[in-house]
Design brief:
Number of domains: 1
CATH class: Alpha Beta
Helix content: 25-40%
Structural class: alpha+beta
Shape: globular
Radius of gyration: 20 Å
CATH superfamily: RRM (RNA recognition motif) domain
Largest sheet: 5 strands, antiparallel
Distance between the termini: 36 Å
Strand content: 5-15%
Number of helices: 8
Number of strands: 9
CATH topology: Alpha-Beta Plaits
Order of helices and strands: HEHHEEHEEEHHEHEEH
Strand order of the largest sheet: 6-1-3-2-7
Length: about 250
């Protein structure tokens, strides 16, 4: 099934990175997958380091807060569609990788449905483009020199310059996702979930449901209006549905 990856006529960069600087003019073949658990949303992240106004200087704190809000918004959108395995955002300074977002779901069916959903969405006032990506390993696609601030290839680097969210934010998002997964599994088993874990009990009703208060209390959340100067909270504070204000 993956024989094309060893074919010399296939573009290695497109296969490994999901993007090629030569685009459609590349002399080698870009094999677009018919199924994949990974999606690419090209140029979705508007890097403030590259899109700032002339003469404007942004502090590292402002850039970090801006990125954390962006990461939280898109994670919640993806998680509302299906379980997110991993999420990567590129901040390369070249056109084919700049702002690329890659999301890997736990299965191919979820990724396919997410692709259809996202291609009917808007984010930050711009239409979203989503496509199935051949990328299998973010580790192989990652520029290790960039992690140590030693990449000297600049905009000529064809590997991912990955921007990472604050550790506390990332942990809280994945913990919340896991919590929702457990609640869904308990619901499927016929349990009714109270306002806290100690109130979980077997539901004798033939049509069990999760208490709406529990949904609000345990769901991920964001502030629907992200800005560079807005402080990042360590824990989400409103429901997942609030992300719909950004994805319309």
């Amino acid at each position: 099934m993956n024989d094309y990856r060893n074919d010399k006529s296939t573009c290695t960069f497109y296969t490994k990175i999901g993007a090629c600087r030569h685009g459609e003019k590349c002399s080698r073949t870009h094999v677009k997958p018919l199924s994949s658990d990974t999606l690419l949303l090209p140029n979705l992240y508007q890097n403030p380091k590259l899109n700032k106004n002339e003469g404007e200087e942004l502090s590292q704190k402002q850039i970090r807060e801006y990125f954390d809000h962006f990461y939280k918004d898109i994670f919640l959108k993806f998680a509302s569609i299906g379980e997110v395995d991993s999420l990567v955002v590129c901040e390369n300074e070249n056109n084919h990788l700049n702002g690329n977002v890659y999301v890997k779901f736990t299965n191919k069916d979820t990724a396919y449905n997410a692709c259809l959903d996202l291609n009917q969405s808007w984010f930050g006032g711009r239409p979203v483009h989503s496509e199935l990506s051949p990328v299998e390993s973010f580790s192989d696609a990652n520029c290790r020199a960039y992690e140590t601030d030693s990449c000297n290839r600049g905009d000529h680097c064809n590997f991912m310059h990955i921007r990472k969210p604050s550790g506390q934010l990332r942990s809280s998002l994945y913990r919340s996702q896991e919590k929702r997964k457990i609640l869904r599994e308990l619901k499927d088993l016929g349990y009714e979930i109270g306002n806290d874990a100690s109130e979980t009990s077997k539901n004798t009703n033939p049509n069990p449901s999760i208490n709406s208060n529990a949904n609000n209390e345990n769901s991920d959340s964001i502030d629907s209006k992200s800005s560079i100067n807005q402080p990042t909270t360590s824990e989400p504070t409103t429901s997942v549905a609030a992300v719909a204000a950004l994805f319309k």
